[in-house]
Amino acid sequence: MGGNGKHRWIFSFYQRSNSSSSPKQSKTLPPHEFLCPISGSLMFDPVVIPSGQSFDRISIQVCRDLGFTPTLQDGSTPDFSTIIPNLAIKTTILAWCRDHHAQDPAPPDYSSVEKIVLSKIPEQTSSRLTSGPDIRVSERELLKAVAENPPVLFSHAVTEIGPSVNSRLLCSTSTSSSSDESVIVTASSPYTPLPLSTRPACFSASGSSSSSTEITLSETPNLKSQSSSSLEEQELVLKLKSSDIFEQETGLVLLRKITRTKEEVRVSLCSTRLLSALRSLITSRYSVVQTNAIASLVNLSLEKSNKVVIVRSGFVPLLIDALKAGSSEAQEHAAGALFSLALEDDNKMAIGVLGALQPLLHALRSESERTQHDSALALYHLSLIQSNRVKLVKLGAVLTLLSMVKSGDSASRVLLVLCNLAACPEGKSAMLDANAVAILVGMLRESELVCKATRENCVAALFALSHGSMRFKGLAKEARAVEVLREVEERGSERAKDKAKRILQIMKDRKEDEDDEIDWEAALESGGLSRTRYRVGKDDFAANSSDF
Questions:
Q1: Which fold has domain 328-423?
Q2: For the segment 140-157, what is each residue's pLDDT rounded down to a tens digit?
Q3: Where does the pLDDT of residue 324 fall: very low under 50, low under 70, confident under 90, or very high at 90 and above?
Q4: CATH number of this structure's domain 32-122
Q5: Structure pTM?
């Protein structure tokens, strides 16, 4: 019995040892954004669609094969026409699994996902898919839609808008200077809490001057008499979907006026039907139509509740195309729309993944002051998240931005982006390698030639670089930054004084730490040994080899 008890004790100890040595599985539920909206499981191969939403690649493939477009929990229907690998969220998912001792997501089984998708398909649709004729349900719906809305062939130029329509554009050309359009933006980084405009430069709350050709509500009595927003929306959608280009232009100009002057209707007009009609007009080859469509989108995007809806409706790729190849005025409004949409935290990653960063960087050198302004602020807000900072560094943004600072092109706004990049290790390293400290100190030294905002932003960028960098002190010493920072501490603005004082304190603390270290050279000298005898250079070693 004793032996059996001993064996049982050894066996139970072995069990306890094995259980204690195995990693504990996390009971923490993964964040909602890590789960595929269709399968509900951790995404193995996440991809992003034009609306900015991420799905597992296999789920989209199954939906395509079945000819089915699901309706998501927020009521939207995703567009699976274009997918882009979402490496940022894939890396984040794997890091979360590692930190929480959870298993990495496994490759999903096609048949399992197919069962999940089939369970989401309505019964009548499912029966068509499984036992219907040769034509799928999606093709039936397509044929029905084509029958109801036959394609329009424009065989003549009678409907082309003449030059007079430019006088009807209702998005004012002057940047609003109202004080209530500026707020203190608290970034995720503590280094750049700066006052920034929250409205694009192409938007103005004040109406344009009256003109005989201006389209007003009095010209559309049906709209004026209707108090219901749904009737107002219906009338606008009919105009926007008209086959007559002039009718489209009339509807767009009216939409711009309503959404500019009536803030309360922006939410009600941001419907699926109206956005669908607006999306098709942003791709119009008529520049006036495209410009008005993008300007209307800018007005709709001013409401916070509309921002995510617009991005998920697939407008970001269209805005990027307009920023690349649109007319000068269309580019202004496209930059303004991206800036407005980037204010919403839930949009930042999607806009970056969909490829807006490179065109926005290029737009910083635009001939239009408005395009420069809104592109810089869009980049500032997009660079508040780590994934976009890393993307910008890989795109070579640091050298581009620093060259603009040296030339004085939009320096104060460009410095905002550099402040954010300096807050991440990759950006800080790239800036130090590109001699950013000397460039920024040089800007401060020429304080008479730069504005107050530029000086403040230079100090803010230096403050961001000084944190957690052993290289900063040496580079600052070479650039003779101490004397410049002391001058800022004495004569600068309150914000600049505070940051200059903290930079000087950081440099002082590091100097004291270095003074407390053992002076090995002095110790060697005191022992009567020559410093040169212990150099590791090949020449020195050969020269002193006879001493041994």
A1: Leucine-rich Repeat Variant (1.25.10)
A2: 444 444 444 444 333 333
A3: very high
A4: 3.30.40.10
A5: 0.62
